[in-house]
Amino acid sequence: MDLNLNAQEEAFRDRVRDWLAHNRPVALHQRGVVDGKTWVQRAKEWQRKLYEAGYLALSWPKEYGGQALDPMRQAIVSEELMRANVPGVIGSNAISMLGPTLITWGTEEQKRRYLPKILTAEEIWCQGYSEPGAGSDLASLRTRAELDGDEFVVNGQKVWTSGAHIADMMFGLVRTNPDAPKHKGISYLLIDMKSPGITVRPLVQMNGEADFCEVFFDNVRVPRANLVGELNEGWKVANTTMVHERNWLGSSPQRLFDKLMERARDLRRGGIALTSHQLYRHRLAEMQIDVEAMRLHSLRLLSNAIHKRPGGVENMVAKLVGTELHHRMALTAMEMLGDYGTLGRGEPSALDRGVWSATWFGSIARMFGGGTSEIQKNVIAERGLGMPRSR
């Protein structure tokens, strides 16, 4: 593919860049700095502002809130958002994962009901996949949904549910036929988090945040109209979501690398900046090569999208390499900072507002989300390289 922007794309990029220069938020910070409802409200306002400017989900159909533009325009926006170092959007998981899933599998009523409110941040979503006994082996999930007339009655538990405490809705997997093989008998439901019988318990993590949650279902009633795809065929729908989740988790590490380089220029060992220190200079160079390789791989994925080629092993490669590189950069930052690397947000002596310890903790979770690195390697080996299945 031609890696150069044409005149129309350059003009579009310049408009995006100019808009961000005049509209970047000045009061929206990390959750640890602006807490609770205040952070949520400001994050929603920022997402709505991006949407009203026409910079969210550009490739979605117009009737569902998009602009039906080519994937290149969305890629340009994503690159400029990263370049401007502005906050992400609070509804990113629904935009990146649920939206494309509904566009592929949803009914017309579901698309018109849910997609526009995803973009405007009127409804925030969480993902109900993992369970205490079904993490890496997701098909072992046990949360039951039994049909009672025109409603499902849901009982069970989800865990590691990011953002469940602030979510309005959940897209999740439930077992609707316990007698079928484990990859069968699973259905994909859209669940109102305000339904009677739902209990959400945030889990405090090592970094002091509580984004992950336990969610309990006690005779929760969900309309059958909220079933996405066919009954007992939810695994097919879930695979669409997981392809987009892997892209999201393995997204470009360029911004984090830029922050790492900025810190390395300021830190010194024996009077030498770490960017010139023999050990760290070599490690930083290796990571810069990997960041560039990830950028080129992202262009390969973009080319697939432009030519409407389905995603496959390439998406898993992006998730595997991106999340592990994210972890390596966070670990390198912790080592460079020494004892200061252990200081978290709110500590008066913390460098970079304590972001590096939180990033390191979070990088471990990224390697588990969407399937562990070990599972990604197995699937890449089997499906991509044609190697025999592991036993």
List keywords for this structure.
single chain, 10 strands, Butyryl-Coa Dehydrogenase, subunit A, domain 1, four-stranded mixed sheet, Butyryl-CoA Dehydrogenase, subunit A, domain 2, 11 helices, 391 residues, Butyryl-CoA Dehydrogenase, subunit A, domain 3, 47% helix, 14% strand, alpha+beta, 3 domains, four-stranded antiparallel sheet
Estimate what percentage of residues fall within beta strands: 5-15%
Strand elements, count: 10
- From the N-terminal CA to the C-terminal CA, the straight-line distance is 40 Å
CATH-wise, what's the superfamily of the largest domain?
A: Butyryl-CoA Dehydrogenase, subunit A, domain 3
In CATH, what is the class of the largest domain?
Answer: Mainly Alpha
- Spans of at least 5 consecutive residues whose pLDDT stays below 50 are 29-34
Widest sheet, order of strands: 1-4-5-8
H/E element sequence:
HHHHHEEEEEEEEHHEEHHHH
Computed CA radius of gyration, to the nearest angstrom = 22 Å
Question: Quick summary of this structure?
Answer:
This protein has 391 residues and is α+β, with helices and mostly antiparallel strands. The chain has eleven helices and ten strands.
Set out the fold topology:
Blueprint: H1 7-23, H2 36-52, H3 71-84, H4 92-105, H5 108-119, E1 125-128, E2 144-148, E3 151-158, E4 169-175, E5 186-192, E6 198-202, E7 213-223, E8 227-228, H6 234-249, H7 254-266, E9 268-269, E10 272-273, H8 278-306, H9 313-337, H10 355-368, H11 373-384
Parallel strand pairs: 1-4
Antiparallel strand pairs: 2-3, 3-7, 4-5, 5-8, 6-7, 9-10
